[in-house]
Amino acid sequence: MTAAQADLRTDLSEIPDAVSIDRPSVADGAALWRLAKDSGTLDVNSSYSYLLWCRDFAATSAVARDADGEVVGFVTGYVRPDRPHTLLVWQVAVDAAHRGRGLAARMLDALAARVAAERGLTTLETTVTPGNTASERLFASFAARHGAPVEREVLFGTEQFPDGPHDPEVLHRIGPLTR
Asked: Which residue, among 32, 36, 43, has the nearest Cα to 156 in the 3D structure?
């Protein structure tokens, strides 16, 4: 076991049992929008898009709830239409009070397990902007836990974004998943 894997195991064990992970509902859309806005790193979409996401992509997304049922984290994703065994993870956010305890990894693992059981899953994809160390570590540790290699390539270059300066989006393709 590498040091990073040992750290992750410790982080995952520190998550309170009172945090549960399940599918989002439309009623959670506003909370997802607030978490994305408060993250300080995510591209924030319209509040309407989070409501639609919770309606149309609940089966391929996850929310973490605290003991009071409040949303404290989320992972949004969808199955690629041209690759039905590939889950594209769109956004991951955790409330500031719950960061640093492995909640993002736990949500990602729970979502991947659910999608694998319901639809079959061989590959997980996501995009990460250069310098987003937290996301790079999250997805590298996911790959390690699932015994999968990671391929990286620029999916969208800076020049492709019409709304001003934007860092490139680097595609991380993780698979085939073996665990």
From this structure: 43
The length of the chain is 179
Give CA–CA dist 60/175, Å, rounded. 18
Q: What is the pLDDT along the chain (179 residues), one digit of tens a residue?
A: 333 333 344 344 454 568 999 999 999 999 999 999 999 989 999 999 999 999 999 999 999 999 999 999 999 999 999 999 999 999 999 999 999 999 999 999 999 999 999 999 999 999 999 999 999 999 999 999 999 999 999 999 999 999 988 999 999 999 999 87
SS3 of the chain: the string is: CCHHHHHHHHHHHCCCCCCEEECCCHHHHHHHHHHHHHHCCCCCCCHHHHHHHHHHCHHHCEEEECCCCCEEEEEEEEEECCEEEEEEEEEEEECHHHCCCCHHHHHHHHHHHHHHHHHCCCEEEEEECCCCHHHHHHHHHHHHHCCCCEEEEEEECHHHCCCCCCCCEEEEEECCCCC
Q: How far is 32 from 91, CA to CA, in rounded Å?
A: 10
Which of 169, 4, 5, 179 is CA-nearest to residue 88? 169
Q: Which amino acid is at 117?
A: A
